[in-house]
Structures are given as C-alpha cells and as structure tokens.
Design goal:
The complex is a heterodimer. By secondary structure, chain A is α+β, with helices and mostly antiparallel strands. Chain A is elongated, with a radius of gyration of 20 Å. In chain A, the strands form three sheets. In chain A, strands 1-8-3-6 form a four-stranded antiparallel sheet. Helix content of chain A is 47%, strand content 22%. Chain A has two domains: 147 residues, Jelly Rolls (Sandwich); 74 residues, Winged helix-like DNA-binding domain superfamily/Winged helix DNA-binding domain (Arc Repressor Mutant, subunit A), CATH 1.10.10.10. Chain A has nine helices and ten strands. In chain A, α4 packs across α5. Chain B is α+β, with helices and mostly antiparallel strands. Chain B has a domain of 53 residues: Alpha-Beta Plaits, CATH 3.30.70.20. Chain B contains two helices and five strands; from the N terminus they run βαββαββ. In chain B, a hairpin with a 2-residue loop joins β2 and β3. Chain B starts with 15 loop residues before the first strand and ends in a 7-residue tail after the last strand. The chains are: A alpha+beta, B alpha+beta. At the A-B interface, α6, α7 and β10 of A face β5 of B.
C-alpha cells in the first residue's frame, strides 16, 4: 500500500463515519479522498451553488452561516474535527443550503459527491453513521429554532456567555459583539445594550478585553427564561 | 494577525480594525478619549496602543462597523491562559 494512501486510510479510520470499515474497505475509500487545506476566512463552500463534494474536517474550525441581502449574518452552526458538511445537498440533490467558511486554518478530506454516495450504498455502516450525524445536527437546529423564536435576546445572550465561559472541549476564542450578534440572530447594537444591562445589574463585569461572569447563578436564571 | 484562537499570557489585546471596511473618515480618531488613534495612509490605526483603555467609543461611533473589540468570556476567578 502506498505510504500516502496508508496515511489517508489511517486518518479516515479516526472518523466515526468510517469506523465500521475493515482495512481493505478503508484502503478503497482512501483512494477516493483528497486532502485539502483552507486559510482562515477562506470560503470552502458557497450557499446556492451546486454540491459537488462532501467534506470531513480533520483539523480546525469552520462556521456555517447565511447572510441576508442587507448583509446581516446568522451563524447556523460551528464545525470542528470529526464533523462533516455538504451531506444534506449530497443526499437531497439540492444546492448548498448555506456557506461554510474557515474560522481557523482548516484541513479536511474531500470526496466527490457521487463517490461518497456510492460508499454509503456499498457500506451500510457508513449510511447509519451519516444518519447518526445528521440526527445530532437536527437536534442542534431544533434547539436553535427554539432559541431564536421562543427566547428573548437577553436569554440567548446569557446562554451564549455561559457556554463560552464553561465549555472545555471547544477551541477557546475571543468573540466580538458583532460575532455574538451573528450567533444570536440580532445586531451588534442590541448585544451592546444587553451586555451593558447585565453589567448594570452586577451579573457581569467588563475587565478590559474580558467579560467576567460575576453572578453565574443569576446568569443561569436569565438563560433559562 | 488576528489570532483569537490562541491566547498568550501578557499579550495586549486591542480593537480590530478592518482595513477593507474602513473609509478613513476619522470619526474614531476624534472620538478616542485617550488619543490612541490616528489615520495612517488614509486608514484608522491604533498608533499609541499603550493608551488604549478598550472603552469601545471607536467601535460605537464607526459608521461602517469597521472596528470590533474581541472579548474573552470567563467565570470570575478563572482566566483562560492560567
């Protein structure tokens, strides 16, 4: 087995999608994969364009977003190592439903759509893994719809601040108010006012570039509303 | 370089200014209470970073949204790079 393809096969075996495959099947799948890199900010996939490729993230973070005609952004979901994207347009034949943009340097495996569909047909365990992955994403979107339609901006902001401060298994990052607005489905000025209101109530404190959660219980109560 | 995914202890964090969006109107320079900003080759820049207090007046007043302050969100008593 050539060295590069052996590396690819080993790399692919770390993805939950391919863990049910034996060595010979992994080698066959690896022959169809291309390794690609993207710089921070680079667009990987553009909303509305036909889907040609299914992607699996090895390294880095990407965001899936939609932008209105007025330029307002809504982040749908953030993706990291182990995640796949373009599964939806690959399976339903439609165009890319959203844009995927690299947040950091991203390295991924890319399969031609037709090749991946063939892999899923030949190996039912891959198809089941795709179903599991899409179910998890659906669950995320149910939560997002609930947040955007049933929660106030203040409650969504409280939930976001708690997540940023307490999640240990994600890449820690600094976030601007504009980026918070894109996650929360609002605009920067509203986020600014909501943050100042939290500071006035003594729930958070601005320490230069740090937003310090002073009263976690109060913030959790706001997030639950 | 904007490397908001990698924190280093002791680094000075400053507002980010997008050269692509900045039109060089100078409103941020006038607004900055610390005198930390100036126009450099027609674009806003933080020329006296030691004076910047991260107050956010530049971000609020920029008519194009070219300035953004990155924030870390932490629980009281816990700092990310500790």
């Amino acid at each position: 087995m050539r060295g590069r393809q052996k590396d690819m096969a080993e790399g692919l075996s770390s993805f939950s999608f391919f863990q049910g495959l034996d060595d010979s099947a992994l080698v066959e799948v690896a022959k169809l994969a291309q390794r690609r890199s993207y710089a921070p900010g680079e667009i990987i996939v553009l909303e509305g364009e036909p889907c040609t490729t299914v992607h699996f993230i090895i390294k880095g973070q990407a965001k899936v977003n939609k932008v209105s005609l007025e330029g307002r952004e809504q982040v749908m979901i953030r993706l990291g190592p182990g995640d796949a994207f373009c599964l939806v347009p690959a399976f339903d034949g439609g165009p890319n439903p959203a844009t995927v943009q690299a947040s950091t340097e991203v390295v991924l495996y890319a399969f031609r759509k037709e090749d991946f569909l063939q892999i899923a047909r030949r190996h039912p365990e891959v198809a089941v893994a795709v179903l599991r992955h899409l179910s998890a994403k659906l669950r995320h979107f149910v939560g997002l719809v609930e947040d955007l339609s049933l929660r106030t901006v203040e409650a969504r902001l409280a939930k976001l601040l708690l997540r940023l401060a307490t999640e240990e298994d994600v890449v820690h990052r600094r976030i601007t108010q504009q980026e918070m607005a894109a996650e929360l489905g609002t605009v920067r000025e509203v986020v600014g006012r909501a943050l100042r209101a939290l500071e006035d109530e003594g729930v958070i404190h601005f320490d230069r570039h740090r937003i310090v959660i002073v009263d976690r219980a109060a913030l959790e109560a706001k997030a639950a509303v | 370089m904007d490397d908001r995914f990698c924190f280093s202890e002791g680094e000075q964090v400053l507002p980010l200014i997008s050269e692509e969006i900045c039109t060089g109107c100078g409103k941020c320079v006038e607004a900055c209470p610390a005198g930390a900003m100036a126009l450099v080759e027609g674009k806003a820049a933080i020329v006296r970073p030691e004076l910047c207090s991260y107050c956010g007046d530049c971000e609020e007043l920029c008519p194009k949204g070219a300035i953004a302050r990155p924030f870390e969100v932490v629980l009281q008593g816990r700092m990310r790079h500790d």
